[in-house]
Amino acid sequence: MEIKNIKTRYDGYLHMYEIEYENSEGEKRSYDTVSRQKGLDKEHMGEKIDGVMIVPIVGNKVLLSREFRIPVNRYIYNFPAGLIDSGETVAQAAVRELREETGLEAEHILFTLPPAFSSAGMTDERVAVVFVKAKGEIIGSDNINEDITSELYTKEELKEILESTSDICSKTQLVCLYLLLAEGTV
Fold first, then answer.
1. How far apart (Å, rounded) are the C-alpha atoms in residues 78 and 69?
2. Could you report the per-residue pLDDT of 127-165, keeping only the tens digit for each?
3. What's the pLDDT score for residue 186?
4. Where are the alpha helices (H) located in 70-128, listed in sequence order?
5. Shared domain check, 93 and 166
6. In a domain, 43, yes or no
7. Which of 8, 17, 96, 170 is spaced 20 to 30 A from 179 at the CA atom?
């Protein structure tokens, strides 16, 4: 496979591109993709770390948010997440987004997973997952463009959520499963 050309189809909050490529049999094909990057070029696709997902641990509980997501027209379970601002590190973005979306303060970062692609069949977006020990009082986001509520859950309650709903982000689902496996709850 070889990318031959990238055409901009739309520039907005997300940028849509048509990627012209040649398949393994030499046929010219096209593929639609979205990116957070304006002016996408093949030499730099997938290099930038776009966002963070934060896994807050408060005592022996885990914080999950329920957020209205416009593309699916419903509330889904998710961990707090957001974009990395210009000049911010992954850790700085995680601390800021946790505070903005939940009101919690990060006591310390437990560990950070290397950035990974969020949905490589659709976008070049990369997200780092940051596990934090957090404290404080949970409050909702005051951003008028976000509808987010957050709650603390025991491992047993996480298991119940995993077994009972499909209204959950797949990354959140996998991290919850990891937490349950690490505790021997599953």
1. 10
2. 999 999 999 999 988 889 999 999 999 999 999 999 999
3. 54
4. 90-102
5. yes
6. no
7. 96
> What is the residue range of 124's domain?
51-183
Indicate whether 175 belongs to any domain.
Answer: yes
Across residues 7-23, what is the average pLDDT? Answer: 95
Same-domain status, 88 and 140: yes
Instruction: Specify whether 66 is located in the same domain as 135.
Output: yes
Q: At what angle do helices 155-164 and 170-183 cross, to 10 degrees?
A: 140
21: left (phi over 0), alpha (psi -120 to 50) or beta: beta
- As a whole number of angstroms, the longest Cα–Cα distance in the chain is 59
pLDDT per residue over 73-100, tens digit each? Answer: 999 999 999 999 999 999 999 999 999 9
C-alpha to C-alpha distance for 79 and 106, rounded to whole angstroms: 14
CATH of the domain at 75: 3.90.79.10
Judge whether 28 lies within some domain. yes
pTM strictly above 0.85: yes
Distances (CA, A) of 173 to 30, 33, 97, 159: 32, 24, 20, 10
Structural domains counted in the chain:
2
